[in-house]
Design goal:
Blueprint lengths: L3 E8 L4 E2 L5 E3 L2 H18 L3 H4 L4 E5 L5 E6 L10 E2 L2 H29 L1
Antiparallel strand pairs: 1-2, 1-3, 1-4, 4-5, 5-6
């Protein structure tokens, strides 16, 4: 059965933690199950995870960086509702997300300059 490599990136409006390794899965449903499993493990390891990860999401991407699926980390356990992206909206969504991260980094830098 053909495999596809998916990457699991943690992203917010201000920061991102990129998965550079990824895993091989047979389909998007398997990637979704792995993502939900990782979120549940994170919550089990850290009881304050919902607060710590407020406004973060887990984006599942393909090799090209296209977001296939996005799961909010601050949803109540069992209430995560993954958002699946249609191919036509992937490029625009990825561009907007990159722009938001860039704006957040620029604002942080500006705040540092203004403090000095």
């Amino acid at each position: 059965m053909p495999q596809m490599r998916c990457y699991f990136h943690l992203v917010s409006y201000h920061d991102a933690i990129f998965d550079e390794t990824g895993i091989e899965v047979t389909d998007l449903e398997t990637a979704e199950a792995e993502a939900l499993k990782a979120i549940n493990e994170l919550r089990e390891d850290d009881s304050a995870a919902n607060e710590d990860w407020q406004d973060w999401q887990l984006n599942v991407t393909d090799r090209s960086g296209q977001v296939l699926l996005s799961i909010p980390l601050d949803a109540a356990p069992g209430q995560e509702s993954p958002k699946r992206f249609q191919h036509t909206t992937l490029r625009r969504t990825t561009q907007i997300h990159g722009l938001l991260i860039g704006i957040g980094a620029a604002m942080d830098h500006l705040n540092l300059l203004l403090r000095h």
